[in-house]
Specification:
CATH superfamily: Metallo-dependent phosphatases
Shape: globular
CATH class: Alpha Beta
CATH topology: Purple Acid Phosphatase, chain A, domain 2
CATH architecture: 4-Layer Sandwich
Helix content: 10-25%
Order of helices and strands: HEHEHEHEEHEEHEHEHEEEEEEEHEE
Distance between the termini: 38 Å
Number of strands: 18
Number of domains: 1
Largest sheet: 10 strands, mixed
Structural class: alpha/beta
Radius of gyration: 20 Å
Number of helices: 9
Length: 381
């Protein structure tokens, strides 16, 4: 009887983990000196939710158990003036509002990137940063001028310093979004054709990374993919190489490789509303697009797929990078999927299919291992 009871409890526990309603059971024992960081896809907590605090109700236990969570913050934390007003060039868009910061704080999201296409309106960008500052959430990718927009977010966990930089290759009007010497805005990495990158932007990003490399133990770089760019971005020119958002463009690979060559330890992308492929470049991991996490903006309920990346840091170096696919339920709540079953296995298959040079992906427990330093796990106590 005792054996049957224990077996039943084990089955229930696994069922809860697989459904996303309990903290995800990651594989490996790395000791209490290691750091487990989660990187999640685009997040946007909108006031159209009856209770914004429910935004991560299925993912929350997993986020809270991590040592650190980083995400792209899609949307300004200011009150909406209404569709056609918040971003004139994106007339269906409304800003999610300041309550989003409370949700981030409650779910262990300590660092966010804010360089993306819906950071629009210089005053609103600054107001949104003020909301983050008041909540104690650090950020990178925007500021009062170009120098501030290029400043990294640096956070310390267990004696290890981790630095983040974020850029956007997608925006609407320069006058409303792009930081310059005297005006607020976001940091950009422009590609007009999806193949090349503006040389000045690339050199500045490389310099940012090299400077950050000297200040921290781990460097994480991300950017908001241009997705063929927006119609107004380059005076209406057709700049898309292809219209398939699931395929990374050549400039993305150029940027990721340059970032890693300049000293980054990990590069990832976001903004296409899809997941894309992965790569190991010179022994370092790249995830080209993580897709969505929580995303409450009207009109995006059909773009539900994403990845949660787990980064294990040990002895001030990245030991392991793995990922778990996610989707959203009928309530628009994001939850994790077992990568060996049904939809989870399908999304892992998509990652493989969308990788230009597919690395060896190994399922270990309930996660897919992209990168692992040799040597196995350790208690490190």
């Amino acid at each position: 009887m005792k054996t049957r009871t224990l077996t039943a409890l084990a089955v229930l526990a696994l069922s809860a983990v697989a459904s996303g309603d309990a903290a995800w059971q990651w594989t490996g024992s790395y000791g209490n000196k290691s750091i487990e960081m989660l990187i999640i896809g685009d997040i946007q907590v909108h006031t159209r939710r009856a209770d914004p605090m429910t935004a991560f109700n299925r993912l929350s236990p997993t986020l809270k158990r991590a040592d650190l969570v980083y995400a792209n913050l899609e949307g300004l934390l200011v009150k909406s003036a209404g569709a056609k007003t918040d971003i004139p060039d994106k007339p269906e868009w409304t800003h999610p509002g300041p309550d989003g910061a409370k949700v981030l704080k409650a779910n262990n999201i300590a660092v966010v990137g804010v360089a993306n296409n819906v950071a629009s309106g210089r005053d609103n960008i600054l107001k949104s940063l003020g909301v983050l500052d008041a909540a104690g959430i650090i950020h990178t990718g925007a500021g009062r001028n170009i120098d501030e927009a290029h400043k990294p977010a640096i956070i310390e966990r267990k004696g290890v310093k981790i630095g983040f930089l974020q850029y956007t290759a997608r925006w609407y009007q320069d006058k409303d979004a792009i930081a310059n010497a005297s005006e607020a805005g976001v940091a950009k990495i422009a590609s007009i054709d999806g193949i090349t990158i503006d040389p000045g932007d690339l050199e500045r990003a490389k310099a940012d990374i090299k400077k950050l490399r000297a200040l921290v133990d781990i460097v994480v770089v991300s950017h908001h993919n241009r997705d063929g760019a927006t119609p107004v971005q380059f005076a209406g020119k057709q700049t898309a190489v292809g219209k398939d958002r699931t395929k990374s463009e050549e400039y993305q690979r150029q940027f990721a490789h340059a970032a890693l060559d300049s000293g980054a330890d990990l590069v990832f992308g976001h903004g296409t509303h899809t997941i894309q492929g992965v790569e190991i470049y010179n022994g370092k991991p790249i995830l080209y697009a993580l897709g969505h996490s929580n995303f409450d903006q009207p009109g995006y309920e059909n773009a539900v797929d994403g990845l949660v990346a787990r980064v294990v840091i040990q002895n001030k170096a990245i030991k392991r990078v793995s990922f778990v696919p996610v989707t959203r339920d009928k309530n628009n709540d994001v939850y994790l999927l077992d990568p060996t079953e049904a939809d989870g296995a399908k999304l892992v298959g998509w990652v493989k299919e969308r990788s230009f040079t597919p690395p060896s992906l190994r399922v270990d427990g309930h996660e897919v291992v992209l990168f692992e330093k040799p040597g196995g796990t350790t208690n490190n106590r």
